[in-house]
Design goal:
The chain is of the alpha+beta class. 42% of the residues lie in helices and 14% in strands. A 4-stranded antiparallel β-sheet has the order 1-2-4-3. The radius of gyration is 18 Å and the shape is globular. The model has no long low-confidence stretch (mean pLDDT 96).
Length: 193
């Protein structure tokens, strides 16, 4: 059953990428609820490779600062939360709990190229779910590239061996009356075959 027009407005039509943040905090409980929604989104073979590190303290965000490109520093430092969207290259080690398909683990354990491609693709998909789930919970989301992944991995992900993909700043954006940037129309971006 389709969601109503209000939900479509919240998730897509009226949702905006913020350029500045209010000081309203994001509760830890909200981040738990956020992940509980994200984890329900589909991934191929239920592989669930995404891993998230939520930077909620000023100290954690200060440790991120050296990795950020100049244009992203203020946006990230002012956001209540910065989520590192990462993936676990060894996601297949969880298949005994996530997918009962016999020998599925061996497909990925013996093919590094396949496992990396699958982890990156599906981890990216789960990062997109994070953005939409945040909007559904009344948060604003600012996905960003423009950072040094090596610094992020060395600083925040090395212990687990996770790989950085992109960042998502989360919080409550300040109102912005700037017109929405253009999007490609159907005929330029799609083909019906």
């Amino acid at each position: 059953m389709p969601v109503d027009e209000n939900a479509l407005d919240c998730l897509f039509r009226d949702a905006r990428t913020p350029s500045a943040w209010t000081e309203e905090p994001v509760a830890d409980e909200t981040l738990h609820t956020l992940y509980d929604l994200v984890r329900l989104g589909p991934t191929s073979g239920n592989c669930c490779p995404a891993r998230f590190v939520f930077l909620t303290t000023q100290d954690a965000k200060d440790r991120l600062r050296p990795a950020l490109s100049a244009g992203n520093v203020d946006k990230a430092m002012q956001a209540p939360v910065v989520a590192i969207v990462a993936h676990d290259p060894l996601f297949f080690e969880y298949f005994s709990r996530l997918n009962p398909e016999p020998d599925l683990r061996s497909w990925f354990a013996t093919d590094v190229g396949l496992s990396e491609e699958t982890a990156f693709r599906n981890g990216t998909l789960q990062g997109a779910y994070l953005t939409l789930a945040a909007r559904a919970l009344g948060l604003d989301a600012l996905p960003m590239s423009g950072f040094d992944s090596t610094i992020v991995e060395d600083t925040f992900l090395a212990a687990e061996g996770w790989r950085a993909n992109f960042l998502v700043c989360l919080g409550h954006g300040q109102p912005d009356e700037t017109p929405r940037a253009a999007r490609l129309p159907f005929d330029e971006a799609c083909r019906l075959l």
